[in-house]
Amino acid sequence: MFAKILEYPSDFMRLFYPRLCGGCDVPLAKGEQHLCLHCRLELPFTNFETMKDNPVERIFYGRVPLHFATSLLYFSKGEKVQNILHNIKYNERKELAIFMGKLIGKRLQNNPYLSDVNVIMPVPLHKNKQHLRGYNQSELITEGINEVLNLQQSINNLVRTAFTSTQTNKSRIERWENVEQVFNIKHPNALEDKHILLVDDVLTTGATLEACAETLLSNNRCKVSIVTLAYAAI
Ligand SMILES: [Zn+2]
How far is the CA of 22 from the centre of ligand 1 (A)? Predict the structure, then answer.
C-alpha cells in the first residue's frame, strides 16, 4: 500500500502539502500549476509593452533616460497580484517567480522596442538581505524571462552597496534618499555598448530602478530598459 502511494510522489506530497494557487491560496486542481485557472484568466495585464509613452515610462521622465519601460500587471492592494508578489518575496514560492517571469518573457518576445536587448539583469539585493531571505526574487523573475528570451544574464556585476531598511513607512523623498547611489558596477567593460534589460518585482516610486539605471548609464556607453512584474500606480 505504502509502496503504491510512493509510486505517485506528487499525489502523496499533496496529501500533506497541498499546492496552493499563488494568487488566491486555494488548493490547485489537478493539471493547474502555480495559479488556478480563475486567477490565470483574471490577471490584470497592463499591455504597456505594446505602447511607447506608457504610464511606466512616464514615471521616469525627467529622472533617467531609459530606452523603454513596462510592467506586466497592475498591482492593487488586497488583490491577487499583491498576493503573488507576497508569495514570491516572503513565502519562498520560487517556482511561482520563475513562472511569472516566463509570462513576462512571452509578452516581450519580438517586442520592437526591445529587439536589440542583449543583457538581462535583476535589481540586486544587498548581500546581507539576500542572505537573510535566501534568494533574490527579482533574480528568479529574471531567470523566468530569460528562459524565453535567452539573453546574456548578468547577475553579480551590479551590486548594492548600502543596506536599505524597509521602505513602507517613509515618504517618497526619504525613500529616494534611502537608496540613492547605493549601486556599483564591478566590471563596467562587460556592459559597454549593451542594451540592458533591468528587472524588478514591483514598481512604485521608481527610486530603486532609477538609481540602478543611473549607475549603469553613468559608467558605460549602454542603453537601459526596465521591466517589472507589477506596477503600483501611486
Ligand atoms: Zn487562484
Answer: 6
